[in-house]
Write a structure and sequence with these properties.
Helices cover 35% and strands 22% of the residues. It is built from 13 helices and 15 strands. The radius of gyration is 29 Å and the shape is elongated. The relative contact order is 0.17.
Length: 517
């Protein structure tokens, strides 16, 4: 009887050990592939260099979605293609060129926001400074046809708002400026009639972007030029892109010009130098609607298929650069997470979802759709890991006390993945914050607003590669060579191991103390 009991105990112990041994073997396989055959930079190369910038409505984003789906399927993942929305008209960017035609001529450094007008081939014209009053406009309206107009407003990367609402706001400023004009005329008369007194100062005009926009367009301007800091930050027509149809396409160019060149050109105009600018801008529109999609790779759980661990990044990107960092970094890293998990043969207890979101730059459209349509039960998500920042190294994680022991156990295999930079698990200090009530700046936001854990890795530059996020954020320098392969390969491996570990816990992560009740 005693021997039978010992045998039974031994049998039970072996049975309990088998899943653990299998999990350890899977984690070792993930680390082996992640450190010897990591493909994250191959994914990033294809996204940034072969496909390029990927704004909503572009054929590039459509191609990228199809490619991600194809890759997921080739690795054996179940794939969900989730239509998150559509836009009336598609937009693709071709080449763009510009130069100043004069004895001291120069090639121009500029960009145009997505969903803004092209030139009609090469367009050459004189340069004028925008009017600030009706009197100024009337004086110059005949010269505006075919001219390039310098605006006082500095570019923030977004297109000039030409909507009816914006033009109504401009009309109100015009009325105020007319009142200012009349008062200034009185001041001028007073100053002339009292030459011995200190002159009264003129009242400055109220300013808004392109005050006489509608009137100048009707007068036939070729386009508007705003000063822009370098590196050029170029985004899209936030105010109008969803209202554009093939019947009301934008009519005039919207140019963001290197601030140093802008100043040179403005001085030449003020001196009344004789010169012209020539632009050739190939922005292309095509009839929609153009749909955009979340591409989600799924590895179904064997024991808790209706519980989930999520990780993701967004696929869409602005197209003045290649969208390599924001967020080709996150999309390619999570694609590699999917490949590492699939090729390691992982059979998790709960389901893993690798979420490649759409439309983040246009308002978190993909992740918002996923959450608001309750694609999966939100209370069954252990955590959502979001990658949307620099191509930095995942060097640690800070978690609420109730999650601490689980994360310590899950992260043991990666503690010394890079011996120079140990991975650390830290217990959060201080009181929890309330559930956020407003969307933040990336795809974690709508999850957090619904009480879902969105614990993120600490991403740092421990080896001093001098990465500066503001240099690439929505700028022309968001290109492939700004990525840091060593960090991205390490982070992909770390993410895959942690996601695998959480998916294989015997319980869902506790939410105790996650948010302030």
């Amino acid at each position: 009887m005693k021997r039978t009991l010992i045998t039974l105990v031994t049998f039970v112990a072996v049975c309990l050990a088998v899943p653990s041994l299998a999990q350890d073997k899977t984690v070792k396989k993930i680390i082996e592939i992640g450190t010897t055959d990591n493909k994250v930079m191959e994914h990033a190369d294809h996204l940034a260099n072969y496909i390029g910038g990927r704004p909503v409505g572009s054929s590039a984003l459509t191609h990228a979605e199809a490619w991600v789906k194809e890759q997921f399927e080739s690795w054996g993942l179940e794939v969900m293609v989730q239509e998150a929305g559509e836009i009336n008209v598609g937009f693709d960017r071709g080449p763009w060129f510009g130069r100043m035609l004069s004895e001291d001529g120069m090639t121009l450094h500029f960009g145009t926001p997505s969903y803004t007008a092209p030139t009609k081939g090469k367009q050459t014209g004189i340069v004028l400074i925008e009017p600030h009053s009706k009197r100024e406009f009337e004086r110059m309206k005949g010269a505006l046809k075919g001219a390039w107009v310098l605006l006082d407003a500095e570019s923030n990367g977004m297109a000039i708002d030409w909507s009816d609402k914006a033009n109504e706001a401009r009309a109100k400023v015009m009325e105020k400026n007319e009142e200012i004009t009349m008062k200034n005329m009185e001041i001028m008369r007073y100053n002339r009639s009292h030459p011995d007194e200190t002159p009264k100062e003129m009242i400055p005009y109220e300013k808004t972007v392109a005050l006489f926009y509608k009137e100048m367009v009707e007068a036939g301007v070729a386009g508007f030029i705003r000063s822009a800091k370098v590196p050029l930050r170029i985004m899209y027509d936030r105010a109008n892109c969803y209202d554009i149809t093939m019947e009301n396409l934008p009519r005039v160019c919207d140019i963001c010009l290197d601030e140093a060149q802008f100043d040179i050109i403005k001085k030449k105009v003020e001196r009344k130098d004789i010169f012209q600018l020539e632009f050739d801008i190939r922005n292309h529109f095509y009839r929609g609607p153009v749909k955009y999609h979340n591409i989600i790779g799924i590895i179904r759980g064997s024991k808790y298929p209706n519980e989930y661990v999520l990780t993701g990044g967004h696929l869409d990107a602005y197209d003045n650069g290649g969208g390599a960092v924001d967020d080709g970094n996150g999309a390619s890293l999570n694609m590699e997470v999917a490949r590492l998990l699939a090729t390691s043969g992982v059979k998790p207890k709960r389901s893993i979802m690798i979420c490649i979101w759409t439309g983040e730059e246009y308002g978190l459209l993909g992740s918002k759709f996923f959450v608001e349509n309750k694609t999966v039960p939100l209370d069954k998500i252990s955590n959502y890991f979001n990658r949307d920042g620099g191509p930095l190294m995942s060097t640690g994680i800070t978690v609420p006390p109730a999650m601490y022991d689980d994360f310590v156990e899950v992260c043991k295999p990666i503690a010394n993945l890079d011996p120079e930079v140990p991975f650390t698990v830290n217990k959060r200090q201080g009181d929890p914050q309330p559930v956020p009530t407003r969307a933040g700046g990336s795809d974690h936001a709508y999850f957090a607003m619904n009480g879902v854990p969105t614990i993120s890795f600490q991403e740092t530059d421990p080896k001093g590669y001098n990465f500066e996020y503001q240099e690439i954020w929505h700028t022309e320098r968001d290109i492939y060579n700004k990525l840091i392969p060593e960090y991205m390969e390490h982070s992909a491996t770390v993410t895959a191991v942690v996601v695998c570990g959480l998916a294989n816990l015997d319980h869902q992560l506790s939410r105790q103390g996650l948010y302030k009740e």
